[in-house]
S-adenosyl-l-methionine hydroxide adenosyltransferase
Amino acid sequence: MHIITLTTDFGERDYSVGALKGKLYSLISNARIVDISHQIELFNIMQAAYVLRNAYKYFPTETIHIIGIDDELHSEKSLLIAYYQNQYFICADNGFFSLLFEENIPCDVYKIPFSGQNSTFPTLDFATYVAEKITLKIPLEQIGERTENHIFTNDYTPFANKKRIDGKVIYIDHYGNVISNISKKLIEKHAQGRRFDVFFKGVDFKNISIQEIYTQYNDIEFKSNKKILANEILIFNQLQHLELAIYRGNPLTIGAASTLFGIEYRSPVSIQFIDNQ
């Protein structure tokens, strides 16, 4: 059995997901296909990277991950394969790997030369055959050419110095929680024990320490010894990113962090450190 995951912006309305799965089953009869998400915002490789980064670590070794976001190819934009932590990742050369792996971009990246064949559905027409070759144990060196010359993007890297950190919102989840690109590790590095102010659009938290940021949502109940619904909280989430949430909020009823404060993808997030007196 070969586990193959799909992360795309294809949605559920069109034929695309069904065709892709059918092609994979035709090529790899013992495939087991797992949908990570087909609801990624159109062409949003940052959102796709965040979703897949939260998911892939839970899959067994030799899993193949196919990413169908901004996937059209041409002579200057090839298909890539990365082998990382004993798993395979297939996507277009659009900067996705630099977002998925951040500072840990693997050295085992292979570029598949552009064939010259035009396609409006390259994930179906090309990525499926790459997945098939991987399942047949064909060495990656025979599928593509090892390369370090692929697109890197640092557009989502926060700015940080001893006075402040400036980041942005990179994801809004199903609950309306707002996730930033500022990590706990980055705050610890620059805070050096100092207290700080945190600013999201429409809400701020003044003079707090890193220990006061929650590690799970219901900390607000047990650490305050009372139940507080619909209050804003800061939390370090599963990936240890700084997140703004409304405790037990609902974007469709009482509201959530994104709806109540008008926060959107790429909205600014900043931290200002308070010098010790």
